[in-house]
Design a protein that fits this description.
By secondary structure, this protein is α+β, with helices and mostly antiparallel strands. The chain is built from six helices and 17 strands. Helix 2 (about 50-65) packs across helix 3 (about 75-90).
Length: about 300
Amino acid sequence: MEKVKYIWMDNKYLPWKEANIHVLNHTMHYGGGVFEGIRFYETPKGPAVFRLHDHIKRLFYSASCLDMKIDYSISDLSKATLNLIKKCQLKSGYIRPIIVYGYGKMGLNPSMATVNVIIAAWPWGSYLGDKPVKVMISKYKRIYNKSTIPDAKITGHYHNSILASLDVKKQKMDEALLLDHEGILAEGPGENIFLIKNKTLYTPKKGSILPGITRDTILKLANKRGIKTLQKSIKPSSIKQFDEAFFTGTAAEVTAIKSINGHNLKSGNKTSLTNQIKQDYQKIVRGDLVLNKKWLSFIEST
């Protein structure tokens, strides 16, 4: 990553190695920061960021949940993101906007701490790789939806995802699947999940999940393709009834699931519905299939 030249920080383009924050910043100690994961792709018209406005809009929503006062608008941060990619001369990769409470005070109430806004971008391939993944249901649960705001992307929400990810590697599996506090399927450590039965898509309903932007894209794609979708509670005991499954997320994109707790799925087959959806998604993010003309934000050439 150090080959990337700049990071945008509080309205300045700083050299990568100089973009630093204080070791006593509030967010590092208490987990009260917010962030987004965004991707940009090579297209026939040049590099383009996928659903930039939607991601930055959610970033502001998450920040509002922590009473963060931001000196910039959604438009400001969108323009800063595009300019950063251009300045770094990147063609495709990953973007990480993050807003943190900085140095200023200790104690849980961050109201007297400064607010730092940071955007980084770097080349990054598929998070889970290109092959279908083996999944196990984790002993760690998704955060309880009554103890937090589950649809906000808050840094502290990911401690259980870290625990699940560490544990799944010890079990020699590829990824975890978390249940909610009632024992119902929720999501992966950093992904939403879809399951397929009789050409119908099933996905956990809102409440305990972070309803991802990639998840929303797939629901809209399914609607365009005439594929039936159901958002409902899914019990782990019903997994063996499904034919296919896949993860969705900005980092994971569309990742086929090979098995869940040893139950083999047909998601990786070339003729599978999962594979068709994955191919369509790749066309959407590169502008070859248009569901919404506003979804791609192009980096202007010099």
